[in-house]
Specification:
Length: 153
């Protein structure tokens, strides 16, 4: 990959475009549901404009979905371009174990948590939660770096 920063910016732009299209699609669907609710209580004179609006919104939703699918294909291709040399998990397996590649002090915190899932309809699930912190973030400011020597006359 020639220019990693430029490629990363392209991926970020595509993700922003994807988010914008998803928001637009969601708003169109909300407007369509409002029209459908209005159609239930509409009189024959007010029904014709609502039906036209429903048809127009249906077409806009299809167009938005088509554009969203195109952006998602572009985004998928852009993300996979990061892995030209291979999947990172496979590349790590081929590294020499004698050469450390992470040489910073870290603190690993773990704990088990019971989480209730609303979407999965599971009352309780036990998860191991973990986080890794750089150790220098935990040190007091006075211990972080030695100050430059000061000379008094």
């Amino acid at each position: 990959m020639n220019n990693f920063i430029q490629h990363r910016e392209t991926v970020q732009q595509l993700r922003g475009k994807q988010r914008g299209l998803r928001d637009h699609h969601y708003k169109l669907q909300q407007r369509l549901y409002i029209i459908l609710d209005q159609l239930e209580g509409a009189t024959p004179t007010t029904m014709a404009p609502l039906i036209q609006e429903q048809a127009r919104l249906g077409q806009e939703i299809q167009d938005a979905m088509h554009m969203l699918q195109q952006v998602e294909v572009e985004l998928s291709a852009a993300v996979h371009a990061f892995h030209d040399e291979g999947i990172p998990q496979d590349l790590v397996e081929h590294l020499d174990d004698g050469i450390p590649f992470l040489l910073m002090p870290i603190r690993v915190e773990t704990r088990f948590m019971i989480i209730k899932h609303v979407a999965r309809k599971i009352d309780r699930s036990l998860y191991l939660m973990s986080r890794i912190l750089r150790l220098d973030l935990l040190l007091p400011l006075s211990l972080k770096a030695p100050k430059a020597p000061t000379f008094h006359s």
